[in-house]
């Protein structure tokens, strides 16, 4: 088992120095909110995360969940922790004040969510999904639906789920078969949904399912899918949970990781049909889902940051304690003294910092795009948000695999043994490149909708901004090498973009074949960009005698490390991209 | 009844202190600071008294530079009603703190003053008792239970060898021990509300207190490190070593 | 000027912490007076009179002092203390309770929990839970001091035959009253004074298993302690806790059984002469401070140790 401590210094550095938190609040109408308050919120969340949620992480992994006659029984201790979480008001960070939320900026919620996700990812999925359901109802539901369901979901009194996937409809949601038959003021829903995270549990007295289904007369394909609210318990006249609805969990999956998060097979309408209420207009369900996609996908990217941080902390503790070298005088020393262990720890530390920087900067674009007063500003931020989202999700979660792998590696033989906790982080991380759109889907999104569709314009703007950091680094004597390295990476990015724009039309397989390399290239480039900015900011603070010098000097080193060890990966990616689809597509299917 | 709680900003419990290379003091530059754990317990106790109806208002006071407003805000987020900061450049010695607090007590007239039994930086364990003497009020130090009973309070104290219960006439002073309660986690809405709760700033001059040094810090050094000894393979070897090498058996 | 030492006692016996305090006071000056304030405590005064180095015993025998109430006792000590260069007490819960009141009444500072005397006005004391040692000089004419007993040897309890003078003032502030007490009953020595301490941690698994440690302690004439983890888990009461927030001990042998060795625990026992750690987890941090480390199952090792001693 390993402890968790929130890396508050790094979180606060990113918020202050890279996001510009106070400016963001002032410019976007978050009155009364400033960095001081953010810091207080992070401190208190950090306590709850470390002291209440983190100790349950390993217990959840060991015990998992059980399906009994009552439904899904969550891991012992989770209910109490959830109640503490909800009573603390932590489910209400982002929601509008109108529905008892706190109306805090998305970027601050992101920083707080990192704590929950690091402390206990399986647990934190429950409020994360609830948050998604709240947003769907808040943005698209009728006033009546909002008044009926939102306050109790925002307060955490009820949880929410998202029911999209079916056995035959995963990535291809057009294949959804669940049916919704109009019946007076409601609909009767029949069908089966799979992979429903926290689809059932006993932590709260109601669960509100958001379900994609087809109306009888709906057009075929993606344009015929509608979104419904289906409560586990129907509400009585006072709005309290009453009669059980015709929906239940019929099975829970046995999984590689996140054992404490019940992944449910949900069956709707085994008897008379589950009563559901239409959200917004008919046949627009999938479009509604897409409006939430940026947040949902960035949320998973953040999980990558969180699990990497947790794995790093565990590996670091182990490396400092594990005596496995002998000095000349016979005394023993810890493995952190070995250069190769250092390499692994530096890779973990440096990459996690870069990932956190990108996750927070991406999350801030949600605030800026959603709140910008000026239309041009709004468009610009929306484009940046759309562009960064697949990189945040795809690159960060892919890199989190490597980091948790290294975490286990630092532990040596003990890393393969469950009791160190390292193996759990490695297993838990594995889902991240899969759910909420696989890495392949993210990469396709980046090359397709986010690049080819706008002729590479959004990317060009990002590249121009990175150029500014290259210039700033190059001007600074101490950062000339980092500047040069970032320039090479930037050129790789430019070349990749140009190649894609030139080749996508002629070779229909080109975009898909290079997409993951393309996405990874831009991930490392963004990481190098933000770490370069971090180095510049850290130096400025050091020169001014502000901030904790130990932390800032370490930041200079992690930025240098990133530049030397991770940024060069952009060049390898480019080389591969330039080879196109030829060898990928050449074999016939029989030859595999 | 009004309850006054005195709180102190100290180095975070989890931070390992480093002694400055010149041995002038410990290095507190940019380390994470927090509410002294015993003070947090004091705030919690006061808030519980208010929640039970025994107290009507909880006022929290802290002495130090502006940064200590953070800890006042923390206390406000935990449920205190308003704050008072007494602005000083450095953290004054216990007797000075007690004198400043005595003036605040004269102004506020609380029925109960609750303080932590000690701060985890200086480890003095003095302020509450000194305040009691200056005000000529009774004290229940190292409290593990506080029960208001009409115009008196029963305080159960953690003393060497067990527990002792005293009956104190109100107004009185209580200092907290670890087991008095388990402080709650601050709730998000309360953290937000704490920003808007009143916080007065005063100076020692406002209170008519002149700060005076009673001690001079000559040196701060790191304690001698204890070296790891040897592994013994069996109980027999252990007994042999204790008898013949350490000669303590 | 002489030094006034406040005796720690329970009205019938002089507590050993007083003897360590006498040793500390010896290093501050030559003329040592010992105040025995209590009720029906003449026997204590008699014992005090024979403590080596003590030239005079002051006996304040009055119902107001019977329970060592700080409100009353501080008035007495402050009145007597005016004529002394130092007023010194053991840093027991009684000393910690009353002495700051005395200092405030005398309008002087207090130097708490000293572990060394460098000069009559200069002392060492631990700060930050023992993670740093401060050397502090008093600027006051009367030095009010509490002494960490484990840092000083005990003075001989015989060898002197000081006079016993009764002092008359009876101060009763009338603001506090004793209600009840609940003392742990044990024939074992007090934790802070024992020469052998056997402490258990979370590794013991439950409170019943502390019987293993008790029987080892009894064999060695020692006391039984516990880590905060064991206390928090409800295995044993809090007055057994050794550590930063509990008792500070420094016995000749300290057995840490099933204790991982959190830094807060180490703060309470690292001045022990010999530390023995028994733990089945060979990575346990306690092994980094132990003189003798035994990686073993405590449920086998402790009974074996006891049977072979």
TrEMBL record, chain A:
Record domain Acetyl-CoA dehydrogenase-like C-terminal: where: 462-587
Domain Acyl-CoA oxidase/dehydrogenase middle stretches: 162-267
MF (Gene Ontology): flavin adenine dinucleotide binding; oxidoreductase activity, acting on the CH-CH group of donors
Entry-linked PANTHER family: ACYL-COA DEHYDROGENASE, BROAD-SPECIFICITY LINEAR ACYL-COA DEHYDROGENASE FADE5
Known cofactor(s): FAD
Occurrences of domain Acyl-CoA dehydrogenase/oxidase N-terminal (ranges): 73-157
Transmembrane segments: none
Coiled-coil segments on the chain, per record: none
Keywords (A to Z) from UniProt: FAD, Flavoprotein, Oxidoreductase
Protein family: Belongs to the acyl-CoA dehydrogenase family.
Function: Involved in the assimilation of dimethylsulphoniopropionate (DMSP), an important compound in the fixation of carbon in marine phytoplankton, by mediating the conversion of 3-(methylthio)propanoyl-CoA (MMPA-CoA) to 3-(methylthio)acryloyl-CoA (MTA-CoA).
Species of the source: Marinobacterium mangrovicola
UniProt protein name: 3-methylmercaptopropionyl-CoA dehydrogenase
Catalytic reaction(s) noted: 3-(methylsulfanyl)propanoyl-CoA + oxidized [electron-transfer flavoprotein] + H(+) = 3-(methylsulfanyl)acryloyl-CoA + reduced [electron-transfer flavoprotein]
Pfam families tied to this protein: Acyl-CoA_dh_1, Acyl-CoA_dh_C, Acyl-CoA_dh_M, Acyl-CoA_dh_N
Domain Acyl-CoA dehydrogenase/oxidase C-terminal stretches: 283-445
EC number: 1.3.99.41
UniProtKB/TrEMBL annotation, chain B:
Keyword Transport tagged: yes
Cofactor: AMP
InterPro entries given in the database record: ET-Flavoprotein_bsu_CS (IPR000049), ETF_a/b_N (IPR014730), ETF_b (IPR012255), ETF_beta_N (IPR033948), Rossmann-like_a/b/a_fold (IPR014729)
The entry's keywords: Electron transport, Transport
Domain of life: Bacteria
PROSITE patterns: ETF_BETA
CDD domains (alphabetical): ETF_beta
Key word Transmembrane helix present: no
Gene3D superfamilies the record matches: HUPs
SUPFAM superfamilies: Adenine nucleotide alpha hydrolases-like
Domain Electron transfer flavoprotein alpha/beta-subunit N-terminal: 23-211
Pfam families the UniProt entry points to: ETF
GO MF annotation: an example: electron transfer activity
Assembly behavior: Heterodimer of an alpha and a beta subunit.
Family: Belongs to the ETF beta-subunit/FixA family.
Protein name per UniProt: Electron transfer flavoprotein subunit beta
UniProtKB/TrEMBL annotation, chain C:
Positions that bind FAD: 202, 227-228, 241-245, 258-265, 279
UniProt GO BP: fatty acid beta-oxidation using acyl-CoA dehydrogenase
Residues that span the membrane, as ranges: none
Keyword Flavoprotein: yes
Cofactor descriptive note: Binds 1 FAD per dimer.
Keywords in alphabetical order: Electron transport, FAD, Flavoprotein, Transport
GO molecular function: electron transfer activity; flavin adenine dinucleotide binding
Signal peptide range: none
Domain Electron transfer flavoprotein alpha/beta-subunit N-terminal: residue ranges: 3-182
Cofactors that this protein relies on: FAD
Coiled coil: none
InterPro entries cross-referenced by the UniProt entry: DHS-like_NAD/FAD-binding_dom (IPR029035), ETF_a/b_N (IPR014730), ETF_a/FixB (IPR001308), ETF_alpha_N (IPR033947), ETF_asu_C (IPR014731), Rossmann-like_a/b/a_fold (IPR014729)
Subunit structure: Heterodimer of an alpha and a beta subunit.
Protein purpose: The electron transfer flavoprotein serves as a specific electron acceptor for other dehydrogenases. It transfers the electrons to the main respiratory chain via ETF-ubiquinone oxidoreductase (ETF dehydrogenase).
Protein family (similarity comment): Belongs to the ETF alpha-subunit/FixB family.
Protein name: Electron transfer flavoprotein subunit alpha
Source organism phylogeny: Bacteria, Pseudomonadati, Pseudomonadota, Gammaproteobacteria, Oceanospirillales
């Amino acid at each position: 088992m390993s402890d968790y401590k929130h890396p508050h210094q790094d979180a606060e550095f990113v918020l202050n120095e890279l996001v510009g938190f106070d400016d963001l609040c002032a410019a976007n109408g978050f009155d009364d909110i400033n960095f001081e308050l953010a810091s207080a919120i992070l401190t208190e969340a950090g306590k709850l995360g470390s002291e209440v949620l983190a100790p349950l992480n390993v217990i959840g992994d060991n015990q998992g969940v059980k399906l009994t006659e009552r439904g899904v029984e969550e891991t012992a201790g989770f209910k109490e922790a959830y109640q503490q979480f909800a009573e603390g008001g932590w489910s209400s960070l982002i929601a509008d004040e109108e529905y008892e939320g706190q109306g805090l900026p998305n970027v601050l919620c992101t920083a707080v969510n990192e704590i929950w996700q690091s402390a206990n990812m399986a647990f934190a999925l429950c409020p994360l999904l609830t948050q998604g359901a709240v947003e769907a109802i808040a943005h698209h539901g009728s006033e009546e639906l909002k008044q009926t369901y939102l306050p109790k979901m925002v307060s955490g009194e009820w949880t929410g789920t998202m029911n999209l996937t079916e056995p035959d409809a995963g990535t291809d949601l057009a294949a959804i078969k669940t049916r919704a038959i109009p019946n007076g003021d409601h609909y009767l829903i029949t069908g089966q949904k799979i992979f429903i995270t926290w689809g059932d549990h006993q932590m709260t007295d109601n669960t509100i399912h958001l379900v994609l289904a087809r109306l009888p007369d709906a057009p075929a394909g993606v344009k015929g899918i509608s979104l419904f609210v289906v409560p586990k318990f129907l509400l009585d006249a006072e709005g309290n949970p009453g009669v059980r609805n015709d929906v239940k969990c019929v099975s829970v999956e046995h999984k590689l990781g996140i054992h404490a998060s019940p992944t449910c097979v949900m069956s709707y309408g085994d008897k008379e049909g589950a009563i559901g209420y239409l959200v917004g207009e008919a046949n627009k369900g999938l479009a509604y889902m897409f409006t939430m996609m940026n947040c949902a996908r960035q949320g998973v990217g953040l999980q990558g940051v969180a699990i990497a941080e947790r794995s790093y902390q565990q590996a670091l503790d182990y490396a400092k304690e594990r005596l496995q070298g002998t000095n000349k005088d016979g005394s023993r020393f810890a493995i952190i003294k070995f250069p190769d262990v250092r390499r692994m720890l530096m890779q973990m530390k440096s990459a996690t910092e870069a990932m956190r920087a990108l996750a927070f900067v991406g999350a801030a674009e949600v605030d800026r795009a959603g709140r910008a007063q000026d239309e041009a500003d709004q468009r610009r931020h929306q484009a940046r948000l759309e562009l960064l989202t697949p990189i945040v999700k795809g690159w960060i979660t892919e890199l989190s695999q490597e980091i948790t792998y290294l975490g286990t590696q630092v532990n040596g033989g003990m890393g393969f043994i469950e009791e160190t906790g390292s193996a759990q982080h490695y297993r838990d991380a594995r889902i991240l490149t899969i759910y909420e759109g696989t890495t392949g889907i993210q990469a396709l999104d980046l090359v397709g909708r986010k690049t080819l569709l706008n002729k590479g314009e959004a990317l060009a703007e990002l590249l121009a901004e990175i150029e500014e950091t290259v210039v700033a680094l190059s001007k600074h004597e101490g950062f000339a090498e980092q500047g040069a390295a970032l320039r090479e990476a930037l050129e790789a990015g430019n070349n990749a973009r140009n190649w894609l724009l030139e080749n996508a039309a002629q070779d229909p397989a080109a975009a898909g074949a290079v997409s993951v390399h393309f996405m990874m290239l831009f991930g490392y480039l963004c990481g190098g960009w933000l770490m370069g900015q971090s180095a510049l900011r850290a130096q400025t603070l050091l020169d001014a005698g502000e901030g904790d010098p130990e932390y800032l000097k370490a930041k200079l080193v992690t930025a240098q490390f990133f530049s030397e060890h991770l940024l060069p990966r952009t060049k390898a990616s480019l080389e591969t991209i330039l080879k196109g689809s030829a060898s990928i597509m050449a074999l016939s299917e029989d030859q595999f | 009844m009004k309850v006054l709680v005195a709180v102190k900003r100290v180095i975070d419990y989890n931070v390992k202190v480093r002694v400055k290379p010149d041995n002038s003091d410990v290095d507190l530059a940019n380390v994470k600071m927090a509410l002294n754990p015993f003070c947090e317990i004091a705030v919690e106790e006061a808030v519980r008294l208010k929640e039970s109806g025994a107290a009507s208002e909880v006022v929290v006071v802290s002495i130090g530079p502006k940064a200590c407003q953070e800890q006042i805000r923390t206390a406000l987020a935990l449920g205190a009603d308003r704050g008072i900061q007494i602005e000083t450049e450095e953290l004054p010695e216990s007797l000075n703190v007690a004198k400043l607090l005595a003036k605040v007590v004269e102004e506020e007239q609380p029925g109960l003053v609750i303080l932590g039994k000690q701060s985890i930086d200086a480890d003095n364990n003095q302020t509450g008792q000194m305040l009691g003497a200056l005000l000529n009020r009774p004290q229940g130090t190292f409290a593990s239970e506080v029960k208001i009973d009409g115009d008196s309070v029963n305080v159960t104290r953690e003393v060497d060898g067990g527990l002792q219960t005293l009956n104190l006439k109100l107004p009185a002073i209580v200092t907290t021990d670890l087991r008095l309660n388990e402080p709650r986690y601050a709730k998000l809405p309360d953290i937000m509300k704490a920003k808007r709760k009143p916080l007065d700033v005063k100076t020692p001059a406002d209170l008519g207190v002149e700060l005076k040094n009673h001690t001079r810090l000559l040196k701060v050094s790191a304690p001698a490190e204890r070296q790891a000894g040897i592994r013994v393979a069996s109980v027999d070897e252990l007994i042999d070593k204790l008898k013949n090498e350490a000669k303590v058996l | 000027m002489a030094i006034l030492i406040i005796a720690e006692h329970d009205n019938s016996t002089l507590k050993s912490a007083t003897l360590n305090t006498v040793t500390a006071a010896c290093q501050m000056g030559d003329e040592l007076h010992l105040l025995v304030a209590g009720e029906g405590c003449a026997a204590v005064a008699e014992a005090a009179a024979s403590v080596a180095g003590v030239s005079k015993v002051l006996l304040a025998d009055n119902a107001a002092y019977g329970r060592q109430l700080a409100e009353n006792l501080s008035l007495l000590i402050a009145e007597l203390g005016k004529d002394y260069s130092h007023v010194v007490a053991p840093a027991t819960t009684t000393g910690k309770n009353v002495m700051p009141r005395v200092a405030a009444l005398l309008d002087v500072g207090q130097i708490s929990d000293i572990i060394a005397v460098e000069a009559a006005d200069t002392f060492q004391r631990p700060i930050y839970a023992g993670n740093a040692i401060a050397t502090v000089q008093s600027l006051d004419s009367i030095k009010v001091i509490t002494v960490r007993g484990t840092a000083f040897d005990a003075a001989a309890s015989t060898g002197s035959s000081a006079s016993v003078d009764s002092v008359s003032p009876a101060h009763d502030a009338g603001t506090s009253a004793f209600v009840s007490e609940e003392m742990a009953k044990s024939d074992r020595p007090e934790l802070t004074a024992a020469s052998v301490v056997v402490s258990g941690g979370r590794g013991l698994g439950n409170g019943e298993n502390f019987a293993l440690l008790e029987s080892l302690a009894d064999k060695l004439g020692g006391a039984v302690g516990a880590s905060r983890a064991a206390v928090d888990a409800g295995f044993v009461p809090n007055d057994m806790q050794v550590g930063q927030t509990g008792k500070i001990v420094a016995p000749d042998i300290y057995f840490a059984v099933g204790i991982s060795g959190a830094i807060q625990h180490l703060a309470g026992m690292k001045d022990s002469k010999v530390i023995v750690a028994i733990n089945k987890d060979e990575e346990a941090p306690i092994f980094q401070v132990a003189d003798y480390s035994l990686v073993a199952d405590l449920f086998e090792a402790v009974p074996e140790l006891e049977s072979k001693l």
